[in-house]
Amino acid sequence: MDPNNKQSGPSPHYSLYQREVFKAGGTTGQLPTFSVHPEELQESTKKKLNDRGYFYANSNAGLGWTDRANRESFYKWRIVPRACVDTNVRDLTTTIFGHRIPVPIMFAPIGINKLYATLGELIPAKVAGELGIPYCLSTAASQSIEAVAEANEQGASIQNESNSVHQYSGPNGGNATSPRFFQLYMGHDDEITLSLLNRAWKSGFDVLMLTTDTWQLGWRPTDINIANYVFYYPNPVGNDIGTSDPVFMKKHGDELAKDTGKWIDHSVWHGKAHTWDKIKWLIAEWKKISGGRPFVIKGIQCAADAKKALEVGCDGIVVTNHAGRQVDGAVGSLEVLPEIVEAVGNDMTILFDSGVRTGSDVFKALALGAHAVMVGRLYVWGMSHEGEHGCRHVMKSLLADLDITMTVAGYQSIDRDVRGNKDALRYNPHGVPPRGEHARL
Question: Is-contact 324 218, C-beta < 8 A?
Fold first, then answer.
């Protein structure tokens, strides 16, 4: 809390963000305009969005039991604090796919961001650039690949304490201030797929992430209740990567006037699953385009699939159940993380996603062996409140939360003291987290 105790170290003192908030309130009466308590933040988002926006961000498959399982899994792992450890200087830095980043947190790929703020994906891309942490762009985005890359560069050019001392090796031998990942929903037209890959690479996205659990949308009753599929409405959002793609537009541009869902139905959620053989083809093509940069599969929930991903040539996996939005009644992602880490953790990079809400959640996923953690709904909720400021406030709060957790729990370094350190946790199989004042969907 003492701003004069900013001893030099590898990581920004993210914890001082809490002091900034306290001091602004105490000296000028300037209070935060919304709560960053996750349950309160989700609840207040209802007042900021119309039903289409709110339910698209928060709907889950079926009864929402998988979403619930994600949170229960975090509840059952408890942090074991250590005493009398010098944590005046923390090292939250880590390396992901050759990029040295200041903290093992990433922006997860979420589509149709214009539902939450007018500028859509330009907002989180810019904030990610400011913070120097990886941003992952969804194929279902409501901005073009090129525009998002430009926003990320704009954010990176803003010199602040969080990123001014960090440099990262970027694609093509250049320097990038934060890594960019491109998340692909792969259709069945290879020409369009290759066009997207080339655009992503030329725009500085140097890690490709294929989502494998969403060939079509899961059964989401709260979306069905209001026919919440914005791609079929007049002036749809979410088609921008398609409408800005020369190959797609040459083949299908004339059809968009009478079928606004042509992009999403043909190239994104097409309902026709691919197999491992097709993924081998995609890996080879991406390696050819990018000069060998990493390929990641998103949607792994068991050790057998993790081993298969390694076998076919994947450099990394994302352990995720799509935040409970695809298969109702499935395992919680944190629940299966230990067995997946045991199976392939020494041979590939493991990213974790689904249910992350707090710095303690990040700590737990890392202690169970993840190399970095992806955050989704949190930043969407923040953006829904106050656009760029709201997104930044939520993410800086999460970074401060993790930094403070490391400090008070007695863990100095992410790579040395936390990652893969099961002694930092204790498992308690009993009970479930209370629902609290605000019931979840």
Answer: no
Residue 50 CB neighbour total at 10 angstroms? 10
Widest Cα–Cα separation across the chain:
68
SS3 95: strand
Q: Mean of the pLDDT values across residues 140-152?
A: 97
pLDDT of residue 16: 93
Count of H-run helices and E-run strands, the chain: 16, 14
3-state class (DSSP) for residue 168: strand
Catalytic residues: 322
Was 353 annotated as part of a binding site? yes
- The percentage of the chain sitting over the pLDDT mark of 70, rounded to a whole number, equals 93
Q: Whole-model pTM?
A: 0.94
357 annotated among ligand-binding-site residues: yes
**Torsion of Cα atoms, 280 then 282 then 285 then 289, to 10°:** -130
Using CA atoms, how far apart are residues 377 and 49, in angstroms rounded to an integer?
Answer: 14
Q: Are 394 and 362 in contact (CB under 8 A)?
A: no
The whole-angstrom separation of Cα 54 and Cα 37 is 18
- Contact of 11 with 400, CB cutoff 8 Å: no
Six-digit token string for 221: 């009753």
User: Is 293 marked as a binding-site residue?
Assistant: no
Distance in angstroms (rounded) separating the CA atoms of residues 184 and 145: 12
- CA-nearest of 441, 378, 372 to 178 is 372
337-370 pLDDT, tens digit each: 999 999 999 999 999 999 999 999 999 999 999 9
Neighbours of 261 (CB within 10 A): 18
Q: Can you list the domains of the chain with their CATH numbers?
A: 3-427 (3.20.20.70)
pLDDT of 1: 62
Say whether pLDDT at 242 is over 60: yes
Nearest alpha-carbon partner for 105 in 314, 401, 387: 401
Residue owning tokens 């989180």:
124
Residue 299 near residue 212 (C-beta atoms within 8 A): yes
State how far the Cα of 131 lies from the Cα of 392, in Å rounded to an integer.
9
The CA distance from 384 to 373, in Å, is 22
As a whole number of angstroms, the distance between CA 280 and CA 285 comes to: 9
What Å distances lie between residue 12 and 8, 68, 93, CA to CA?
Answer: 9, 34, 10
Strand partners, 168: 176
136 strand-pairing partners: 181
